[in-house]
Each structure stands twice: as C-alpha cells, then as structure tokens.
Amino acid sequence: MENILAGLCGTSPEDPLPVWVHGSVGHCFNQLTLNVIPHVILAVVSACFLGTPRSGSRVPCRPGWGWRIAISFVLAGLFLADTIPATVSPQELGPVYLAVLANGTATLTWLTHGLALLMLLKSIHGTTRGPVALALLALLPLPSLVITLVWYYQSRAAWSPAHPAASSRFAILCLQLASLLVYVIGYLLPTTGRQDLLSINRSWQQDQLVSEAGISVPDQQSVAEDGESWFSRFFYVWMNPLMKRGYQWKLNQPQDVYVLPRQLQAARVCDHSHHAQEAVRLFSVLHAAFGLRFYSLGLLKLAGNLLGFSGPLLLNLLVNFMESRQEPLSHGVLYALGLFAGSFLGALLRNQFSYQVNKVTLMVRAAVVSAIYRKALRVSSTSLTRFTGGEIVNFMSTDTSRLVNFCLSFHEVWSLPFQFGITLYLLYQQVGVAFLGGLALALLLVPINKVIANRIVMNNKEMLKHKDTRVKLMTEFLCGIHVIKFYAWEKHFSARINACRAKELQKLQAIKYLDAVCVYLWAALPVVVSIAIFITYVLLGQQLTATKVFTALALVGMLILPLNSFPWVLNGTLEAKVSLDRIQRFLELMDQDLEAYYALDSPSGTAAAMEMQCAAFSWAPAEEESTRQPLSTGTLQLHIENLLVRKGMLLGVVGKVGSGKSSLLAAVTGELIKQSGRVYVCDLEHGFGLATQEPWIQFTTVRENILFGREYDARLYEEVVEACALSEDLNILPAGDQTEVGENGVMLSGGQKARIALARAVYQEKELYLLDDPLAAVDADVANHLMRKCILGVLKHKTRILCTHRTEFLEKADALLLIDNGRIVKTGTPADILPLVEAFPKFKDMDKRRKDKAPDEQGQEEAVETEADESMQNNHLIHKEEEKKEGAVAFQVYKTYWLAVGSCLALSILFSLLLMQASRNIADWWLSHWISSISQAANTSVMVCSASPPSPELLLFSIVGLVSPIQALDTTPVPSNGSLDVNFYLIVYGSIAGANSLFTILRAFLFAYGTIRAATVIHNRLLQRALKVMVRKSRAVWGFCKSLCLDVLLIDLYCVDDSLPFILNIFLANMYGLLGMLVIITYGLPWIGLILLPLAALYFSIQRYYRRTSRELKRLYSVTLSPIYTHFSETLSGLSSIRAMRATQRFELENQLRLEENQRCLFGSNTAVQWLDIRLQMIGVAVVTAIAGIAIIQHQKQLGNPGLVGLALSYALSVTNLLSGLISSFTMTETMMVSVERTEEYTTDIPMEPQDKLVQVAADWPSQGLVEFQQVVLAYRAGLPNALDGVSFTIYPGEKVGIVGRTGSGKSTLFLALFRMLELKSGRILLDGVDSQLVGLEELRSRLAIIPQDPFLFSGSVRENLDPQGKRTDAELHEVLEQCHLRDAVTRMGESEPIELGKRGKRLSVGQRQLVCLARALLTQAKVLCIDEATASVDQKTDQLLQQTIRQRFADKTVLTIAHRLNTILDSDRVLVMQAGRVAELDSPTHLSKKDGSLFQHLLHSGQQ
C-alpha cells in the first residue's frame, strides 16, 4: 500500500502521503483526499438519480436547470482538457499518473452528474430546484481547487512564459472555478411557485396510495418502488410517505398500503409459474420461474461477506498504528477512511441482499399458495379424502412458510462455510498455529450441538403430536359444546384436554432445557475459544500484543456465528424438503377427469337430460378398495343398470337412510369414481343447479350467497327469493339481504340455510337441478310453499332430481326411483312406488289447505328462536374483525405475563442476566488492561502502572481477585511479560470467564423454567373459562366466540408457549448487550459521548417511527391473512357445489385478490424492516468512523490507550447488529405480547355460566319426572323481546307431551330454559318440586336427557360417542344400538373394535347420526327426556320403529318432543302449542284436532307431514 502510494505521489515509502509540505497542504494529499474522493462521492450519488422516472406531464424548463446541465458538461470538458498539458510536461506539476487519475475521475463524475440532472429535469423534480444533496455535493471539490489556486499564487508559476504548460493549466483552473460559481448561481435562480420536497412527496403520495383493492393499477400510477431513482431504492426514500402515515395512525386498511411492484403482483407471478406444466414437480417449476434471479443474488451476498472482513483487518492496522509512535498520521487517516468505506458499502450490499431475497420469497409464496388452491379446485373428491381439510390448509400455511424460510436461508448454506474458511485463514495470519487450540474446542462442540439438535427435533415431533391431539379435542369440544353441556360432560373433556396439555408441556420443557444448553454453549463459546487460543499462543512462547488480542477476539466472534447457525440452517433445509415433499404429494393427487367420466352423446337421442347405463361407482378408487383398512369396508358401491331422465321431468328418489340417494347425485356431478358403464349429461359445460343435503353457506351477505357471482337481476332475484320462501326472513334480518351470515351461516337457522342454498341453485338458471332433501329442515307450511312455488313453479320447465324422505310431496312427480343399498329396486309412477314406502301420511287433504293464515303467523321462519334479530340488531356485519387494537400493547399485559411467570422468578432472571453481561464486559476490559500494561512495559520498561489501577470492586468478580493482593500491582516492578505476569493475568481472565459461564447457564435455565410456568398458568386459566362459557347468548356471538376461542387456544397459545419466550430471550440479551457496549465505549473514549448523544436521539426517533408503522403493517398482515385461509377452507367444504355450478375460475380469482392484498401488507412490512435496517447501519457506520477519528486525534495528542481504543472499536463494529436486533426483537416481543393480551381479554370478556350450587339433591332426583314451568320469562339478551313470555304449564310424571308451533315460537327455547343454557329473567322451573335455579349446573344437566336438533358426533369410536365417561358395559351399548336400528350399519363398518366413525361421524349419513344421538339419550336412564326434531332426516319406516323404541324404553318416563312431522306426536298424551313465546293451547291431540279454529287443527291441515 505504502509503495503504491509512494509511486503514485513520487514520495518516500516511509511517509507516502505527507499532509503538510513546506508550509502548505501536500500536493498529493490535496489531489487524492480533497479532489478524487469528493468527485467519487458526487459520481456515486449522481448515478443514484439516473433511474429517476419521467413524470407524465410536460414540465416547462426552468433556466437554472439548463445552466447547471450545461456547466456540468463544460466542467467535464475542462477536466479532460487539463490532462493534456499535464501529460506533455509532467515534471513541472507533480507526477503524471496522479494528474491523470484526478482528471479522469473528475471528467467521468461531471458527465454522470450532467446526465443525472437531465433525468431529474424530466421527472417531477423539474418544477423544483431538485435534490439539495446533489447541489451541495457538487461543491465538495471546491476546497481542492482553491488550495491549488493558492499554490500557483505562492509558487508564482501561474503566468511565467518559461512554463507554458503550467500557465495553460492555471487558465483552465480559473475557468473551472468560474464554472462552479455559475453552477451555484444556476441553482439559486428562483423557480416559479417554489415547492419544497415535501409537496413532491405529497403529490406523489396521492399517486401511490391506490384506493381500492383488486383494481389493476393504471400505468401512470406510481407503485411501490417501481420507477424510483437508485438513491431512493438504496435508502428506501419511497417508503417515507408510508412510514409517515403509519406514524400518524393512518394505516387502517390494506388499501392504505402501496400496491405491489409489478413484478411481484400475484397475477403475474402465478402466470409466470403456471407456464411451467402442472404435472412437473413443484421444485422444478419454482426453479424454472425464479431460479436465475435467486441464484444471482448470491453475488451480492459474496461481496457483502468480503466487506464484512474489512472491519477486523482495518481495526488491526489502526491499533497497530496507535501502538507505534513512528507511523505517519496519513496512515491513520487512511485506515479510518477505509473503516468508513468498508462498513458503508458492506451495509448497503447486505441490506439490498435481504431486500431482494424478500422479494423473491414473496413470489415463491404467491406461486405455491395459488398452485395449492388451483389443485384443490381440480382434484377429485375421492382422492381428496386422503387429507383432512386441516392438513390441506396446513400446506398453505405451515408448509409454504417453511419453503419461504428456506429461500431466506439458502444462501447461508454456501456462505457460512466460506466465511468460516476465510476467518480461519485470517486467524492463522494473526496467531499462527495457536488458532488450532481454539478450533479444536469449537469443533468439539459441533457434534454436541448436533446431538442436542437431534434431541430437540425428536421432542418437537412428540410435542406436535400431543399438540395436534389437544387441538383436535379442543376443536371438537368447542363445536360440540352444546352436546357436552347438555350431557354435563365438561369434566371428562377437560380432563382429556389437560392430560394432552400435560404431555405437551412435558415435551416443551425438555425442548426448552435443551435449548438452554444450546444457548449456554453459544454464549460461552467465544470466551472459551479465545482463552484456548491465547493460552496456546503464550505456551508456544510468543508474546501477546494489543493488536493480536483484539483482532483475534473480533475474528473469534466472526467464527462463532457460522458455527452456530449452520445446524439451524441445515435443519431449516431439511424441514423445507419435508414440506416440499408433502405439498408435492398433494399436487400429485388425481384430478377430476370429466372428459373420461362423461359420454359425449346420448344413446337415446336428444330428449335425454341425463342417462346412465350399466354404471358402477364407488367412493374409493379401485386400486385402493383392496388395500384399504377394514375401516372403510363399509364404503357404499352404487350400481345403476339403466336410468334415463328426460328433459323437463321431475324425478323423485326415495329410500331408507344410507341407501345411496346422495351418492346418486354425486355420481351425476362426477364427484364419485366411475368404475364402468356410461354416464351422459346434456349441456355439461353449463353445470348443474345443486342443493346439497348439508347446505353450504359462504361467509358473506345473504345476497352474495344467492347471486354466487352472477350479475344482479332484480326481477329474477325477487322471483327466486319469493319462490324459496325467503321474503319474510329477509324482512326480519337486520340488514335485509345485506346481512352477513357468519362462518358456515352460523347466523341462520337450519331451514334458512337450506332455502338460501336452494335459492342459490335456482338463481344460477341451469338446465338440470339436483336437490338433496331441501325439504328436511323446514316446517310443513314452508315445505309446501317450496314444492308449489319453487320445484313445481319457477323450475317447472327444468329437469329436476329430488331426493327426499317427505314422500307426501312426491305425488306430483313424473316418476319415482326407489333405491336400496346402492341399487335401483324399482322405478315407476308415484302411485306404484309410494305404497312401498311405508307410513304414508294419514291426512291427504293437501288441496283443501286453508288459504287464510292466521295473521300473527305470517310464516316467519325466524332465525333460531329470534336470535338473528337479537344478535344483530345493532350490528349487521358480524364480520367483527377483532378490533384491530390501536397503539402499543398496554402495560397491563406485561404485568399479566410478569405475574404468570412469578415476581421472584422474574426478578432473579433479570439479575442473572445482569451478572452475565457484567462478567462478560469485565473479562474484555481485563484483557485490554493487560495489553496496555504489557505495551507500556515494553515501551518504557518502567514500573507497570496502568493509567488507573483496577478498582477493587472490579476484581471482586474473579476468585483470584479476592486472594491476590491488589497492592502488588502498583508497587512491584514486573519484568515485561514475565511468567508471573502472564500467569496472573490469564488466571484472572480465566476465572472471570468461568464466572460468566456460570451466570449464563443459570440464566438460561431460570428463563426456560419461568416461561414454561407462564405457559401453564395461562392455558389453565383459558381452559377453565372455555368450560364455563355461556353458550347460547346467541348463535352469531357464539360463532364469533368459537372462532376467537379456537384462535386464542391455537395460535396465541403457541405464541405463549414457544415464540414469545424465544423472542423475549433475544430482546433481553440485546438490551443488556447494548448497555454493556455503551459503558465500555464511553469508558474507553469519553469524547465519543458528544457523538453518541445526537445519534441516540436519532435512533430513538427512527425506531419510534418504525415501530408504529411496523406494528400497523403487521396487524394489517394478520387481518388480511385469515381471509385467505377462511376462503380456502370454505372452498374445500363447498367443493362439490363450486364445481357443479362451474364457479371454479371465479374462486381462483378471488383467492388471487385476497392473496394480493395480503402480500401487499407483507411486502410493506418486510420493506419497513429494510428501511429501518439501512438507517441503523448508517448510525453504526457513523459510530465506527467517529471512534476511529477520535482515536486518531487522541493518538496525535498522545492521550490514547491503544488497548481501550481497540476494545471500543471491536465493540463498535457490532453496534449495528445490536441496534437492529434490539428494535426488531422489541417489536416482535410487542407483537407476541398481543397474544397474551388476547388470552387475557378472552379470560375476562366472555359471559360465564353461574357456578354456584345452593341445594343438595338426592342421588335419584328427579325420581318421578314432574316438570312445572311457573310464569317463566326469558330473553336471549337484555334489550331484546322476550323469547318466552310468562310460560306456565305442568307435565305429570310419565306423561308424553308433543310441542308444536311455527318456527320461532319458542319451542327450542323451552329446552334451553329447562337445561339452564340461558338464565331466566323471572319465574321458576320445578323438577319434582325442586327449583332448577338452585341445583348445580352439572347435577341438573346430568339428570336430564336430550336429543338435540343438530346431530353432533365426536371424531372417534362408537363408544366415545355414546358413553365417553366409560360408565356402561359393551352389552348395554350393543343393546342400545340394536334398539336404534344402528346395529347393521355399525357392523358393516368393520368387525374390529373400536369402530371409528370418522371426523364428526362423517362415515354415517345424516339420518344415522341422529340415531346415534338417540342411542346416547337412551343410555342416560334419565326420568325426563327432551327430543328436539330428532327424526327430521330419517325415512318414515325407521322413524316409526324409533317412535316405538322411545315408547318402550321411556314408558314410565316423562318425554317432551318438539315435532315438525305432526304424525310423530299424534299418539302423545297431550300437545302443547306454542305461539310467540306463550302457551297457546295444551290438551290431548284428539280434542285439539276436533276443536274448530284451534291452532293445532290449522297446523294439521296446513301441510300434513
């Protein structure tokens, strides 16, 4: 380096760059530092503006711009001209190379500058003076020109004819100065309507913040980052308006965030990746689409890594310079400048690298998510059953994020070993072979780390298994909470959940402790390794110097990072591989192949709408049939020999429960697997109108549900709504058809859901309609209306296939089909078939229906017991996005967590952290103290007396300090580096390091223990609340609570268990680390305080700005994330409808829009991190440069202590990482704390059931079964109309009472009141004379039995569903199954015990599920049985058998039955008719049916069921 400089400047190598020569600034110094460097800076900054986008409008040119552009090119010419005389007569004005270098640089710079100004002129800056920075930088070369001018003046060489070259150069110099003057004047010229830069930002902000999602961005609108200048891209200036909005709390919805840059927009990414064929492996698709771009980022990474090494090397040179008093000052300045340049460029490159990688990961995410979604829409239903819905949603969430994380860590895979190698080489340069001592130790730890990592992975797998079980249990518990409460099974379920949680926590604890060991090894490693290196070095007989120690310390620090990260990077890679394979398995499922499924032409000519010949279908693929577990030997096969449906006919399909009616419809739509035969459907591409048996409702408004993506046609819409008997329901709903219906239509009653699904099918105007029992869930009046107005009305010219149990409506059918066991038993006219379907109704006077309805009964099929209006009176959009909590997390939340950990424990964790950090800093300080004393001894060989003897307090931390006499330091002259000396220092250093390692492990274990404790406390609190939640406040509110509760119990608990402790740990370590660093730096260089204070203020304001915005962006990200998953799981549950109605493309587009919105927020949030990072890096650069500068000044004044300066600098090199680590970990801690906040809210905000128990009842209570209601008044919520209004009646022991009334009259509410699901406003309910309000809830509910309206089964065996507590014998269970006619169905499912019913009983048909619920009630042996429409989905034959069973089994018990089919209660002792929450009539059925004008008589006639 010295020689190069000497050659360039023509000076001696001892002092190549003299600053002061003969009383003026050295010519070489002037040219290099004051001329070349400023020009380079100006060139770089100007180049940044070369990419500035043109503005659309033509801007009239301001004269000032013209002047400046002209002057720039003139200056370029002048500097070029100056080269000629310099080369002609070189000897006169210094060396020729120097002149060529200086002038060449200047020429290029001014050319670049001129071009940049041209670009700026045509951009939006044209109306202003342009960026101030550029104008100021243009003046940087001025001092150099002035100094040269002064030099000419002093040497009088300006106008001497003897030196023509010198004279011409002087003339050129004057012209250059004049040009610069003109440049300044051009800048200062007034611009009309002067606008400051802010207004530019403002005008540009309006461009940027695009109003509505989903609208493609018009070309002239500026999008995030597109068309920005280089400068703006490097420093994220374009993010400023967004950061500002966030700071002012103006980021409230995804639309406030920038639109994605064009290359990242979901549509483009998806097209890009879909060009690659679907069948190929996912990896090769991603590789083809994004590979090149991704790999080329490796170059950035490489350059950044190399620059990272410049820090320690220059530090080494600088400390050397301070130790030797002989080196010239210019060297020090060069080293300091080198430190500045290296850290500055390194920061820029590393920052750009992470930004670009983030962009690639966004593209990968978009591609993978949309590929999974597309596949889900196309895959055949039968092969989809291999995965549960949850698993598939997991592909989209967990597995995709693992792939994305792999993209982030891929470049680490090669760069870590590379860094490792270079670091080792540099260490070798410093300490020779001694580095092997440290390396051996470090490598010893690798296998240990590997073992620990393996154990962690193993435990993690186990923990996830337990967690899955807990989640499954929890989900079922919440979905089936009604059943659990009716049967008082809470204790049993909570015990099961707690058992799972205990196992999960046990594994979590193992993981945390292993983690603690890992953390300990990680923290202790640098100290141990450096001690090993120094001991080896000293034992080899070498002498330690300040330079060596500090450079080695810095390098060891750099060595540790790759060693530790590598196992994690490998782990991440393996995880990504697993996830990739899982997604690949899903993508390789068989697609629906409609072309192979359907025949193209009908054998019977054009009249056929649908035809099947010799067709055999099954639910499982043929190759699987043989290999399937016995589990599904019960899968039904469907054999259709010959079936022809002519256009425009109404075909009725009847048959027992589970005979294959729904399967027939699935065979028509192509959802089954065709094993042989032909299927023909006319007009196939139009699709079908499908209404499934379990109606599929989307989470949107009623109108959107019906339109299903078609244009709104008022006339048709009205007609459809009227035909489906929805008009009155829409009037009741708070916002009419704009009411949101909640997830899966939770706001609606079963009947409303069925009719909305029917209306949706009708509105699509298809040719072929497949209706799967749409009449089951509605009462007689409505069923009649649907039949007349819809099926035989609006649809009369269409082809209709109707499956139903309500045979009375099939008289008008053109033909009937009787199915049993998957085969057509008989086809014929209704007259032939109906007698075969037993139990045809007794009243056939359908046509004598009374046309006049009682006025108060205007058919309001009201949402479950007046709930719709109650829950939504005030707020029709129940899409209550959880209130996006404003602002920072409240102090209260931290307090909650602190208390959950326990105050003593929390304090001891903090104290152990303090000890750990202090001991670490003291160890470093001791080293620097030792070095100083050595170098002083070496320099002066006088008594060792370091500037200040170490204070006794500092030595307390080492055991030796307490023993060895401190005075010895001051008094005894010590031979330089004598054995006593080295031993003494090394022992002290070793013992401090030992103490440090002790405190480290203490802190790690305390922390692990504390966080596990907090997790336990929080989960127990949550579960207790979940068990006691008051369920039927209202369906909507309950639906919301349910999803919130699931979220809290899944996502937030995971946070509290795992993510929060991890981040909190990092945050605390960073905080203490930063404090320790500041103490050391200010101790070493007190003057640095002057620079640290303003930087601290700057840091504070930047982080405040960032934290607010980042928090808002993260919240927006999570708010936009759940719609993607909800939409996806909704799509999965409605696949058959979406495909049958040919809406797949629209759904794909919707997914894309949702994804795009989420990606916008994610991109904003990622970029905000980079925005912060580059600013912090610049603070770091400033600190490093300042320390180096101050050190040089101190050195000149002979104040410096090289040891301390080295220490301060080696700390300063890591300042940026600490600063950004502190902010990001703090922000993440805040984000994670939101989870604690939500668990806290959940445990305080949700209404609870009363837990008191005021009276003790006998073991056999109620022994008689006497039920009395006395003036019962009850409302669903304060301020709503009473659902029961003064109800009084008595039911005597053993009596059978039927309860009838229109929907919404309060029938089900009676049961809710009896079971105390809702508390009464006034009145009493007595059982055997005991007031039910005084009995404990568990006791009360366990003594009653109920068969609820919706048959809810738990995933699991038959036993788990009938008798979860295991109180009954197998014989009893078999007997009950026999009585409920389930024995055959269950034995068909498999011989081996336990017989699994599948997820929520999916292996049984809906009717069979109701039978299981009946069996459950039969087992309870209660004296009072309540039946709520228990047989709505059961065929009439089975229904009769059931009624018989109930009569036999409950002969001596009191039975209350709510019925829709009146014939089921015609033989009861009395009938209770409810109307508008009051008892209207109560008498025997025969009396009531004969009594003229009675409500019961009206109900009987109005549509016999």
From TrEMBL:
Cellular localization per UniProt: Basal cell membrane; Basolateral cell membrane
Domain of life: Eukaryota
Pfam families: ABC_membrane (PF00664), ABC_tran (PF00005)
Membrane topology: Multi-pass membrane protein
Chief place of localization: membrane
Single GO biological process annotation from the record: lipid transport
ABC transmembrane type-1 domain ranges (all copies): 299-575, 909-1231
Protein name: ATP-binding cassette sub-family C member 10
Organism: Opisthocomus hoazin
Compositional bias ranges of the Basic and acidic residues kind: 847-856
First-tier enzyme category under EC: translocase
EC number from the UniProt entry: 7.6.2.2, 7.6.2.3
SUPFAM superfamilies, per the entry: ABC transporter transmembrane region, P-loop containing nucleoside triphosphate hydrolases
